[in-house]
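Summary: Need help interpreting a holo structure output

Steps to reproduce:
1. Submit the protein chain below together with the SMILES for zinc ion.
2. Request a joint structure prediction with the ligand placed.
3. Inspect the structure token block that comes back.

Expected: a single structure record containing both the chain and the bound molecule.
Actual: see attached output.

Input attached:
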Amino acid sequence: MCAATTLIHCGKLFDGITETLQPNVDILIRGNRIEEVGCGLHTPSDAEVIDLSQLTVTPGMIDAHVHPDLMESFVANHSNPYSMNDAYCALAAARTAEKALRRGFTTLRAVGAFGCCGYVFHNVRAAIEQGYYLGARMVISQGCCTPGSHGDYVKSLGPVPELIQDYGQRHVCMGNGPEFFRAALREQRRLGYDFAKIMATGGFATEGDSPVDQQLGDDELQMIMATAHELGMGVTAHAYFPALVTKLAEFGIDGIEHAALIDKTTATLLEQKDVYVVPTFMPYEPVVHWDEERMKKKTVAAQKKYRYYQEQFVEGRKVLIESNIRLGYGTDIVAQFFPYESGYEYEAWLNSGIDPYRALKAATSVNAGICQRPQIGTIAPGQLADIAGWKRDLLKDPKALLDCAFVMKDGVCYETESNL
Ligand SMILES: [Zn+2]
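--- attached output ---
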């Protein structure tokens, strides 16, 4: 634990916005806030001094696309029946939040549960905020979807109507018709959920759907956006193909998750409307840079879909990178990694030739904007004291965000864990 007043000596500092690593900067923290940032700050007599002169210091990282309710990302709900249970999902979410924190990711944006768990995220968040568990901050949503769609994990229980209906009732944002979604979002808001997520199309890992279908009616999509905005919540959607992304942007969506099959015209529209994209590059690495061995681990149906769209994946990646779209940093879980191993996404950005400062800003100040949390994501006076320190060269080493050496959240230090 850190003292109430702390002075951190940083070897180098990335402040979340400025595209430089400033040498020998000090950060003065009182309580949970940053009070002063500068070179050669006076050390108050009551301050504990932390020497991070061997590290590069950054704001605490933010992962904007996590499904925290899984213990392991590669155990799909159908092979782990416990993931359909609220208590198990809550334990998994608490574990993910703790592991993320210890790896330097002080905030997680939960984009819906992967199991059918009800309202577990706000309980997990409350337990962390009340100090019963160690964990990252959580910005939370529960995915809006229709029965039988990509977001309907209940269908994996098999074609037993009673079982599906019973479990389906606990999938609190799965339903039909605009009025259902209006009521579901008001209920989420009542409980303190932060934003709305729409599972707008099928995916690659789910059987019986397609990444180019539309799984909610236009009236449902428009009602979700209108209701969320009335309630002051942002709205984002899981979507891949240009026609749907265009439609969502025209309906007034704030962000898109994935957008992996996007084209240039659609990217230009997103730039004009300032719609952000959380591209989750890492899960698609074996598709963009075709990797037969890793593809073999996916289901035959998924492999077929990925191969069919492979060229579009390559093109979509290029379009996203060359665009000026506000790109957020998010990992998803459709990969061989655990939901809290958020550092792997950095590897995908750097290996795609993206400027490391764009990636670093995405994981800090840009993601703070996406999360509607302006008090995090930057190191400046008045900001919450969420701070991370890294051993490796952030500008050159794709594994740099896998090797956390210091973490502070809300002015309190925690022991770190390296992924390496
Ligand atoms: Zn996802």
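--- end attachment ---

Reviewer comment: The domain at 5-59+376-414 is CATH 2.30.40.10 (Urease, subunit C; domain 1). The mean pLDDT is 93.
Status: needs-info
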